[in-house]
Structures are given as structure tokens and as C-alpha cells.
Amino acid sequence: MLKGVATCMGLAAALAIIGPAAAQAPGDAAALSAKASELYKAGKYAEALPLAQQVLSIAEKQLGANHLNIATPLTNVAGLYQRLGRHREAEPLYQRALAIREKALGTDHPLVSPTISNLAGLYRIMGRLSEAERLFQRALAIDEKTRGPEDIEVANTLHQLARIYWVQNRVDEVTPLFQRIVAIREKAYGPDHPVVAQTLNDMAGFYRDQGRHEQVEPLFKRVLTMTEKALGPEHPAVAAALNNMAVLYQEMGRHAEAESPATRALAIREKTLGPDHPHVAITLHNLAELYRTLGRKAEAAELSKREQAIRAKGIERESDRPK
After folding, report:
1. What pLDDT does residue 313 have?
2. Domain boundaries, the chain
3. Could you tell me where the DSSP H helices lie in the chain?
4. At the topology level of CATH, where does 10-105 sit?
């Protein structure tokens, strides 16, 4: 399944919430928050976690365990646990943040909605889809009431619901959700924004799962055009869009048309990610399968050999990590 829109966690927001007194506490909450945010943005979640935990500890000592302004640092630590796959540790922190905000603000306050969505998103990842749907529906009702039916947060929640319905094969419910999401995001961001491109990409992935290839192709083409315009012709996201086009053409039996996007995707990934990146291995695999189908066995064998060498290096690097 194609990946959906990612969300970011604002670790730096904890600084404003902790207050100036906390910045004078041991460990310097201001510096800790800034460093944790920097590490998070760099994808260094394991390094960011202890810093976020220290910020939370300082906030609790300054404000008390149940103060409203504890909810954000709680959410930040939970979000890092989630990124690290430590879902069971994230759950009670999200639940605690939700309880704090509900008690302080009321159950239908706009700030309660994203807290509900955080917990719902965790449940979706954990496969607890019924619980996730119930919470997302609650967040949606709050957002539609307090923000309006065309607010961007409404679209974000609808996107999460669409993912759940997709997994549950509730086909008739997914399509109208995607159509509504695209309409809201196009109005909010403009028709060529990367967020709109990602939405169309997900919509195309859904159609592809349903075997509706004639609807997938124009969406993938539009995504490719939008991504090239926004990010340039040699960005890794362009390679992903090209790879999607190539795989689609293979699935449709249009093998000759698949070669051009596949070879271009490979060239971009080798240049931008390096020749030994796992995404290069994936592209090599897809191109090798195409060449086998076209009867170009020698070329396919050479690509497969390169793919296996990359994967072997990855296994070797993994085995070298400290246990």
C-alpha cells in the first residue's frame, strides 16, 4: 500500500508551554526542547527521546502532573515512542494527555480534537481499527463543528478514516472520502501543492488495489507532473512517482512503456540516495522483473545480481550493529 501523508510532532512547542521558570531548572528545558526538535526533524528518534523525557520531567516538577500544559510534552514523548515502534509505551501517555485536556477544556474543545486523533492514529497502526474509527469520528465531529466542514484538519481526519476503510475493504465509503479530501486540500493549498499530490497518490493506490487501472493512470501522471514541478526532476519523490508508473504499466501488460519510467527512477535513486540504498534495490528488482518479461534475460540477471549485493550489504550492516 502506498504511504499516506505524514504528520510532524512539534517538540519545540514544549518550551513555550513549560514557561520561563523551567528554563532555569537543571538540564535547561529550552536547550533540551530545541535539541530534541532538531533530532526529531533529522529522524534521530532514539536520540531525541531522552531529551523529550527530561523536558516532561521538568514540566511536571514545575507545574504538577495534571496541569493543562503537561499535555504537550506528554504528547511529544508518546510521539517518539510511536516513531520507535514502542506502541504500548505510547498509549498511556496519549491517554493521559487526552484526559488532562478533556478535564481542563471540556470534551468538545478544538484542542481536544488533535489529542483524540493522536490516540486514534496509534490504534490504527496497532491494528485496533474499531477503536481508531470511533476516535477519528469523534475528532471529525469536533472539527466540523468548531472549524467548519472545509477546514484542513477535517481533511486530515477524513484521510485517516479513508485509510481505515481501505484496509477494511469498505470500498463504497473510501472513494467519496478521497474526493472530499482532495477538494478541501486543493482549495486550501492550491491544485499543485505536494500535499495534494500525496492525496492523489493515495487515491490512486486505492484504485489500484481495486484493479481500476484506467482511473489510476491519470492520477499517477498528475502526481508525477506535480512532484517534478514542486521538487525538481531529480528528487527522490519523483523517483517514487516514476516507479509507481512503471509498476502500473507492468500490471496492465504495457511492458514496453514501463521501461522508461523504471530506468529513470533507478538513475535518480542511484544519484540522490547512493548506489547501495534499499530503494535502489527495490528499483533494480522491478526493472529485472520487467526485463525477464520482455525476454531480456541477461540484463535481468545482471540487475538481480546488483540487487542481491545491495541486500547482502544491508544484512551485513545490520549484523554489525551492537546488540
Report:
1. 84
2. 10-105
3. 13-18, 20-23, 29-41, 45-63, 71-83, 87-105, 112-125, 129-146, 152-167, 171-189, 194-209, 213-231, 236-251, 255-273, 278-293, 297-320
4. 1.25.40
